[in-house]
Automatic annotation (TrEMBL):
Entry keyword Transferase: yes
Keywords: Nucleotidyltransferase, Transferase
Pfam families referenced in this protein's UniProt entry, alphabetically: CTP_transf_3 (PF02348)
InterPro entries on file: CMP-NeuNAc_synthase, Cytidylyl_trans, Nucleotide-diphossugar_trans
CDD domains linked to this entry: CMP-NeuAc_Synthase
GO molecular function: N-acylneuraminate cytidylyltransferase activity
Species this protein is from: Williamwhitmania taraxaci
PANTHER family: HAD SUPERFAMILY MEMBERS CMAS AND KDSC, N-ACYLNEURAMINATE CYTIDYLYLTRANSFERASE-RELATED
Name listed for the protein in its UniProt record: N-acylneuraminate cytidylyltransferase
Highest taxon in the source lineage: Bacteria
């Protein structure tokens, strides 16, 4: 495997302002992900992709070189991971390193560790195009998830007659912590169009994702505890 670890860290953030460098337990949020990546990979293949000079400076104060400042057009509210990953791949290929596998680690998963990354990599096989980390979903489309039909009435998202949630098929929720992606497949299509996807199941705490201030407060509580 020739990996490239991409940690996307845009300066703009609405739910939690400046969240990528906001202090959690006394250190910048992004530091948790950098430390997890360093448990597994050499600094030379860890790429923090940011458009923000302050984020760049904080990352480099941790001893990790930021190879580029992401262009403004690739750092908008509407910019998805697909564009960010292709930009990083193109940069490294132009500089002589041709990765065959992308490991995407989002800074908003501070409780994902190097151990989780290693376990995920062991499950990644040549016959799959992507492996994603998930957690067991609390809600189930066969039981307690509903959609509104054309007549304005609620119907189950998946028609079923289960009377106990325990009897329903197990469903998973993507937690956003780890993505292991085949580079050639990524060049052909965005992540939403992938098939042949494998899963790596993580527990509730390790899966915790920071999107709102409530999420942040819980993370602060957990760190202090």
């Amino acid at each position: 495997m020739k990996p490239l670890i991409v940690i996307p860290a845009r300066g703009g953030s609405k739910g939690i302002p400046r969240k990528n460098i906001k202090l959690l337990g006394g250190k910048p949020l992004i530091q948790y992900t950098i430390e997890a990546a360093r448990e597994v990979f050499d600094d030379s293949v860890i790429c923090v992709s940011t458009d923000d000079i302050e984020i760049k400076d904080i990352v480099e104060s941790l001893g990790l070189i930021v190879p580029f400042v992401r262009p403004v057009e690739f750092a908008q509210d509407t910019t998805g991971s697909y564009v960010v990953l292709l930009h990083a791949i193109d940069f490294y290929e132009m500089n002589g390193y041709r990765p065959d596998t992308i490991i995407l680690l989002q800074p908003t998963s501070p409780f994902r560790t190097g151990k989780h990354i290693r376990e995920a990599l062991k499950l990644y096989r040549d016959d799959c195009k992507m492996l994603i980390s998930v957690k067991y979903a609390k809600s189930n489309p066969y039981y307690n998830l509903f959609e509104e039909n054309p007549d304005g009435f609620l119907v189950k998202s998946k028609a079923a007659d289960f009377t106990r949630r325990q009897d329903c098929p197990i469903v998973y929720e993507i937690n956003g912590a780890i993505y292991v992606i085949n580079v050639e497949a990524l060049k052909e299509r965005p992540l939403a169009q992938f098939s042949q996807i494998k899963k790596y199941v993580m527990d509730e705490i390790s899966s915790h994702d920071l999107d709102t201030l409530f999420d942040w407060d819980f993370a602060e509580y957990f760190v202090k505890k």
